[in-house]
Amino acid sequence: MIYDHLVVRYGELSLKGKNRRHFESQLFETVKRKMRPFQGLNMSKHFDRIVIELNGQSYEPIVKSLQDIFGIHSISLAVRAENDLEAIQKAALIALNEAIEGKKTFKVTGKRSLKSFPVNSMQLNQEVGGYLLRNTEGLTVDVHNPDVNVKVEVKDTGTYISSKSFEGAGGLPIGVGGKAMLMLSGGIDSPVAGYLTMKRGVRIEGVHFHSPPFTSERAKQKVIDLTQELTRYSGGKIKLHVVPFTKIQQTIKDKIPSSYSMTIMRRVMLRITERLAENNHAMAIANGENLGQVASQTMHSMYAINEVTNMPILRPVITMDKLEIMNISHRIGTYDISIRPYEDCCTIFLPSAPKTKPKREKAIRFEKNIENLEELIEEAVNDVETLILEEGKSTDETFDDLL
């Protein structure tokens, strides 16, 4: 194997001032957990990077796993050399030859963090670049737009030479932004909202409203599988709270004018999610609402619905086109699960003409028709089923088992 190390570079967290050490520690813990399936790796944390010694392991699956971790800007394949100019030049030639096939131009980007090294960054560019030109054919230097950039970084632990990098997920490390409850319906939008919420360093717990027998076990399993897929990005585990919602939905159908049933249902969902957030020490609610997409997601509807909670509501996909959301869904692996044809509770008892501009005052008045609403909410919260999904472990009941 030519490459013997991976250099994992931090992204946005490198700008976080006094919080930087905490952010780096959170990221390192996530990387260590993510790397557990790979045997024989040595990892070390440095001021501006994590260095992984491969010890003969194939880099492809490791890089793929690292690309799921928020807080990583890039992952570079690297050759390590001793802090000796001749050794650095030879290692740089190896790295260039590995990457240059079919390409014609290169440049050297030297960085000397170890100030006791006798060659400064500018001289390093010249010494290594000249050596590469003398020992290759048909190549020229292009300092502005090279086909290959040979990065040479002199550190106290050795010199790392890289010529091939992979894009990381960006964002902030999981755990630095608190916790939010994700309202997870089973559609395309809410898993993407969960992914984007986690990208800002927020841990999530899922909340799904299940209305048997009107919604099937297949619909529930669909949400379990979506949560399982999101564990790839969570740093380990995600809790999923399944709320029994049948009695409340039937009561809304019987007591509320049909045009306002969706508005009242969403108000009740928010109340229950807020209770679960308080019980699980979360500070916000996240959902997949997209402005104007359906009747409950107009500005008027949000105004009438949001009144029931003072918790911040995070809506990462609110301004996106549907195609943008679908593209992210494909990329993160949730799309094929989301389009399974099993309905969630939002689609049952759906009124033929839901209000797109509901009045808050009317919603409050209609809600009073349900005299035992607080009792129903308390009962639903008390009867919640909580599942713990963990990356790399299958759920007790898979979608295939249900067919």
TrEMBL record:
Top EC class for this record: transferase
GO cellular component terms, A-Z: cytosol
Classification via SUPFAM superfamilies: Adenine nucleotide alpha hydrolases-like, THUMP domain-like
A single GO BP: tRNA 4-thiouridine biosynthesis
Entries under InterPro entries matching the protein: Rossmann-like_a/b/a_fold (IPR014729), ThiI_AANH (IPR020536), ThiI_fer (IPR054173), ThiI_N (IPR049961), THUMP_dom (IPR004114), THUMP_ThiI (IPR049962), tRNA_STrfase (IPR003720), tRNA_sulfurtransferase_ThiI (IPR050102)
Stated name of the protein: Probable tRNA sulfurtransferase
Coiled coil: 363-390
Compartments where found: Cytoplasm
Organism of provenance: Fictibacillus phosphorivorans
